[in-house]
Amino acid sequence: MEEAGKRRLSGFFIRNKPTLVMGLLALVIAGTADLFAGFFMVTMEDYIVMIPGMIVLIYAAIGMRGNIFGAMGSRLGTAMHMGTFHMNFKKGGVLRSNVESAMVLTMIMSILMAVIGWIIVSVVFGNTYDLLKFIFISTLGGFLAGVLVLVVNLVIAYIGSKRNWDVDNITAPLIAAAGDVITVPMIYISAILAHEILDDAVTKILSVVMMVLTAYFSFRVLTRKSKRKRKINEAKRIIEQSLPVLLACVFLELITGLLIEGEKVKLIEHAVLMLMMTAFLNEGNALSGMLTSRLSSMLHIGTLPRSSAPPKEAGENFGVMYILAMITFIYIMTVAFAVQPDDISYLVLLAIVLASASIITTVINLLSYYVALAALRFGMDPDDHCIPITSSIMDVVSTVVLMSIIAVFI
């Protein structure tokens, strides 16, 4: 029995070695990058206090960036598996359609996120802030971050296609990390422009201009006609199928921001928690995105049976997630503690992280499988819907779990 157990364990590591090695490397890189995003959050303390709802907007923007571009990465990964991906911008091609739809969705959701967030923050906290300035910060920050994250996505796709990598193992964590480390400073720059460089009138005019341009380019992409009959406008399909899901995800991301906004005094008081928070949430996103991408591709190509209980093939992926989660969460906590010493002891932080990671990873595993399965059963493309849904739900779950366990220990 003992020998058989050793063989099974050895077989598990042999079969999953590429995923464990590439996934761990991507997650460590992502975690390190997220700590830089945490540093920006700490340096933005003045703006977080000065602008009502700023922390809500930041976390919603971070989540939305991962939702849009993580889904794009998943679609490109599936296209590579199916042999339909080509590294060119040919009109109607996989890559161009994904680029166009991602940027249109970025601009639309940045505007909607600002408007909905402004209303919710005003109602919940009773604070007032100029709506057009809030839209300016969200939209300009979203556009700048979107362009840069798009470049990262294209680089990953290019290198992955050239080297025949399974990009499902690396896209989610790297895109999520890029979204964090890029979005936070871009929002910061936009806030500085709105408050210290541009006049109020100029800021409001630019806000209106960005909304008009977003409407114009969205209309162009959605109404484009193909010269070939029966040729599907793939960009239009992605936008139309993604918008309802992303709109629902906006509320989940805003809930995450509201939960953190309510605890911002404690986070500012214990800077190590603020530093760790962004990285912690992103690793949950990265793990859910990685697992969702893998399960979506397996369902597409028929290597994952569809059953009410997760089959053996899914269970093996679950085990990989537990290993990756424990290593990366402890790594993030250790680095955060080293660079931002606090009156919270290392052992207390370790207890918080181990308890949180165990609960969060269990939710990730079950949620990713059943969301992917539900998407197929309802005739939806898992690549378009699963990552936004799982990431947004995991943001809320991770925040609730982490803040609850912090409250127990601190």
Highlighted features:
single chain, 410 residues, mainly alpha, 0% strand
Structure commentary:
Helix content is 84%, strand content 0%. It has helices at residues 2-15, 17-43, 45-50, 54-82, 94-125, 131-163, 171-197, 200-222, 234-262, 264-269, 271-301, 312-339, 346-377, 382-409. The N and C termini lie far apart (44 Å).
| Bulk shape | globular
Decide which structural class fits the backbone: mainly alpha
Strand content: under 5%
Order of helices and strands: HHHHHHHHHHHHHH
Number of helices, counting only DSSP H or I runs of 4 residues or more: 14
What about the largest sheet? none
Average residue pLDDT: 81
Based on DSSP secondary structure assignment, what is the total number of beta strands? 0
- How far is it from the N-terminal to the C-terminal residue, by CA? 44 Å
Secondary-structure blueprint:
Blueprint lengths: L1 H14 L1 H27 L1 H6 L3 H29 L11 H32 L5 H33 L7 H27 L2 H23 L11 H29 L1 H6 L1 H31 L10 H28 L6 H32 L4 H28 L1
Helix pairs in contact: 2-7, 2-11, 2-12, 4-5, 4-6, 4-7, 4-9, 4-11, 4-14, 5-6, 5-8, 5-9, 6-7, 6-8, 7-11, 9-14, 11-12, 11-13, 11-14, 12-13, 13-14
What's the quick description here?
It contains 14 helices and no strands. The protein has helices at 2-15, 17-43, 45-50, 54-82, 94-125, 131-163, 171-197, 200-222, 234-262, 264-269, 271-301, 312-339, 346-377, 382-409.
